[in-house]
């Protein structure tokens, strides 16, 4: 007999394990090869972060709609961005764009501490509830405009932005430690954007273009809900 608890999606045909295996295979075949990143993505079940009618597609390598008209990113893009960030166990990481909380949850397995912000209070509240339920105690989530970073907790070893700005926001560059890395999409919304990696050196910033991507825009100010 199959029993189904609140945290276990109904899986009468037993294909959930197979779907999860295919999920990891898709990540590898799209270039996510870092063992620590793959382990974190194996441990954090994307099924917790996708609700409603799209829950069924949580293990497919595609972005999906979440509340407030936003999207949970495509898993392989999450993996590639996390890999490019090269997170170390002692790192303090800032994420701009909490969304569903999926990216922050993966970072929480790799870093010492994760700070994540979103301009939608509802997304922050729901993500914080999930972090609590999943026992991810090293994440702090806050509703605020992330283009100004989190000055009270700066500087950061790593910064990841999961919404696209035209250029890297100045306050975020300023809140990066020397030797620190920021990964973010840049470009006009609705056009092809580029994922870039910015490394802070002793004298300035190095920029490396990684790949074309498509993200929702980074919008100024706190949203009304
Ligand atoms: N990382 C998320 C996906 C984020 S989608 C995940 O893993 O699910 C992009 C998010 O950026 C949206 O939730 C949007 O509300 C947020 N966002 C856009 N502009 C912002 C800003 N200025 N400050 C903070 N968050 C912002």
UniProtKB/TrEMBL annotation:
<comment type="similarity">
    <text>Belongs to the methyltransferase superfamily. L-isoaspartyl/D-aspartyl protein methyltransferase family.</text>
</comment>
<dbReference type="GO" id="GO:0005737">
    <property type="term" value="C:cytoplasm"/>
</dbReference>
<keyword id="KW-0963">Cytoplasm</keyword>
<comment type="function">
    <text>Catalyzes the methyl esterification of L-isoaspartyl residues in peptides and proteins that result from spontaneous decomposition of normal L-aspartyl and L-asparaginyl residues. It plays a role in the repair and/or degradation of damaged proteins.</text>
</comment>
<dbReference type="GO" id="GO:0004719">
    <property type="term" value="F:protein-L-isoaspartate (D-aspartate) O-methyltransferase activity"/>
</dbReference>
<dbReference type="GO" id="GO:0032259">
    <property type="term" value="P:methylation"/>
</dbReference>
<dbReference type="InterPro" id="IPR029063">
    <property type="entry name" value="SAM-dependent_MTases_sf"/>
</dbReference>
<dbReference type="GO" id="GO:0030091">
    <property type="term" value="P:protein repair"/>
</dbReference>
<dbReference type="InterPro" id="IPR000682">
    <property type="entry name" value="PCMT"/>
</dbReference>
<feature type="active site">
    <location>
        <position position="73"/>
    </location>
</feature>
<dbReference type="Pfam" id="PF01135">
    <property type="entry name" value="PCMT"/>
</dbReference>
<keyword id="KW-0808">Transferase</keyword>
<keyword id="KW-0949">S-adenosyl-L-methionine</keyword>
<keyword id="KW-0489">Methyltransferase</keyword>
<protein>
    <recommendedName>
        <fullName>Protein-L-isoaspartate O-methyltransferase</fullName>
        <ecNumber>2.1.1.77</ecNumber>
    </recommendedName>
</protein>
